[in-house]
Amino acid sequence: MHKLFRSFNSISKNIVHVSENAWNKMQNIHKQTKHTTFLFSANSGGCSGLNYNFKNVNPLIISEMSKDTKLPLSFLDNRGLKVYIDPLSEMYLLGTTIDYISEDYSKGIYESKFTFNPDNTIAGTCGCGISFYIKD
After folding, report:
1. φ and ψ at 106, to 5 degrees?
2. Distance (Å, rounded) from C-alpha 56 to C-alpha 39?
3. pTM of the predicted protein model
4. Long-range contacts of 30-33 (CB under 8 A, 24+ apart)
5. What is the number of domains present in the chain?
6. Closest CA to 113 of 93, 98, 92
7. Distance between CA atoms of 124 and 118, rounded to whole angstroms?
């Protein structure tokens, strides 16, 4: 069972959810890169205004980010892997599920990739699956 670690307790539900498929893929990435740290953030851009950004990073980047922003970083922990949530993006990512889908031609899936599924009451997406917008 993975648990969300927060340095404050203002939100009772997890900021993001990570599927078992995504944790398995991150474990495979860790075997290749040796880094156990991932960063999930939202950046401006894309056809809907914001883009999901999910990457495997050196833990030193997280340490520097925490110093620069002077904000606590929330994270999910599972099997020694950590998914940090960028504190400046947290409000945009609330309720998002990170999943991983594998190529399966019989189902019309032609590439393996991480997918991001927002809480439909908070955000909507465009067709690319990387760009999203916050609902009014």
Report:
1. -65, -20
2. 6
3. 0.82
4. 30/56, 30/81
5. 1
6. 98
7. 7
